[in-house]
Design goal:
With 443 residues, the chain is mainly α. Helix content is 84%, strand content 0%.
Length: 443
């Protein structure tokens, strides 16, 4: 018999307890890049340009394989809901083994092809050597980066978002210290910065493994690699990979169109995208709470609790999106001064920031429902919905320039149309209730 549905106050406390630390951990990766940029920027413009190219490549890798965290969260939280912590950790270890395999493959691919990848991204002749150096050294840390994703998914599934926050803060602090030592103390230049980040990533992976191993010993979980388990983890991740690749395609198309509108337009677009990403971290924190909570309810066989939690988190998404939108609109004059001194760019940026602000309430619902369906293991539907979104979005975004639209029109297509399509597809799924599949594993 399912447990009574918690009161709204208890639901709110649980959402906040998971979402707030998750937000802190989410900003760790941008902080790594900021630390690297600050130190490399003092080495010279070519070095900083090289970092920009290499960081874009590494960021793509991390974003593409974020399913390692999401799929692991869903699997682990279901087992926790079924009161089977040993299986929860076993499923989490399957994700870590998969991360190691993928990391080894990526390392083998990136090391010899780094110069070609840098050229593909259009690095200048002066920046290319630095980009290649940073990319090759950083590739050594890719297995650790992917392990961190999977291990973060384990702890989220265990309803623990505090430990990832502590590990992220320790990693950020260690990264700054190591970079300062290698870049300035040992005069290793951009390679020293990359090695500092690699060591920090492996330190974070080691910290996570220590926590997971401690839990495995406490519950008698088997940690040995299992071909069946690793393949199962991969199958669960493939639909989320398709979803992520489709979303990346949307972002790339938008940026490609912006680049053809003019220098002021692409500059305004890049600043707006930075603001959008920061706001997305806040909304994604609620989505992460949704992944963990929904998976636990469904694993416990509590369909009523899952629906109630979904409804409550949607309200959180609406309120959070509305507040963030109002703050963005109010802060837009300050943001103009903060990001650019170019009057032309400011003229283009102001209406775009207002579009960003207006889209936040819709984005709040979209992020929450995406997290709910991910936690429910409804990856195949998410993949189909995102492919449909991409198919409808592509012709619309490609018409912006031929129809004489500027960066503001582009952002109405991106922030307005694209998010509206996602809102419709996700809301329809949530209302059907087909995502509510209970049990320790989704059939």
């Amino acid at each position: 018999m399912p447990a009574p549905v918690p009161t709204r106050r208890r639901q709110d406390r649980e959402i906040l307890a998971l979402a707030l630390p998750a937000f802190g951990a989410l900003v760790a990766e941008p902080l790594f890049l900021m630390a690297d940029s600050a130190m490399i920027g003092h080495l010279g413009t070519p070095q900083l340009a090289g970092l920009g190219v290499a960081a874009a490549l590494l960021g793509t890798v991390v974003n593409v394989f974020v399913f390692l965290a999401y799929a692991t969260t869903a699997a682990v939280s279901r087992s926790i809901g079924a009161d089977d912590p040993a299986t929860a950790i076993r499923r989490g270890m399957d994700g870590i083994w998969l991360a190691l395999l993928l990391g080894a493959v990526l390392l083998a691919v990136v090391l010899p092809t780094a110069p070609a990848l840098v050229d593909l991204f259009g690095a200048s002749p002066t920046a290319a050597p630095y980009a290649t150096t940073y990319l090759r050294v950083s590739a050594v840390g890719v297995p650790a980066m992917l392990m961190v994703l999977a291990a973060t998914g384990i702890l989220r599934g265990l309803q623990d978002t505090r430990t990832p926050l502590y590990v992220a803060l320790a990693g950020f602090t260690g990264n700054i210290a190591l970079n300062a030592l290698f870049v300035y103390g040992l005069d290793l230049g951009i390679a020293g910065s990359a090695w500092g980040t690699v060591l920090a990533q492996f330190g974070m992976a080691a910290a996570y493994l220590r926590v997971v191993l401690r839990g495995a010993r406490a519950h008698g979980a088997d940690l040995r690699p299992s071909a069946v388990g690793i393949l199962g983890s991969a199958r669960a991740g493939i639909p989320l990979l398709v979803r992520t690749l489709s979303l990346r395609a949307v972002l790339l198309l938008t940026t490609a169109v912006a680049a053809r509108l003019g220098d002021a337009d692409i500059a305004a677009h890049q600043i707006a995208l930075t603001v959008w990403t920061l706001l997305a971290f806040a909304l994604d924190a609620i989505a992460i709470a949704g992944q963990a909570i929904i998976g636990r309810y469904l694993g416990a066989g509590d369909a009523t609790g899952a629906r109630s939690a979904c409804a409550r988190m949607v309200r959180w998404g609406i309120v959070s999106g509305t507040v963030l939108g109002a703050l963005t609109a109010a802060a837009s004059p300050v943001l103009l001064l903060l990001f650019t001194g170019d009057a032309d760019v400011r003229d283009h940026l102001l209406p775009v920031l207002l579009v960003v602000a207006l889209c936040q309430p819709v984005a709040g619902i979209v992020f929450v429902l995406d997290g709910v369906l991910t936690g429910a293991g409804d990856g195949p539907y998410l993949a189909r919905a995102m492919l449909l979104t991409l198919a409808l979005f592509t012709p619309a975004v490609l018409l912006v320039r031929p129809l004489g639209g500027g960066v503001t029109a582009l952002w109405w297509v991106f922030g307005g149309l694209m998010m509206a399509i996602r809102l419709v597809t996700l809301t329809l799924r949530a209302r059907t209730g087909r995502w509510v599949v209970t049990g320790a594993a989704r059939a």
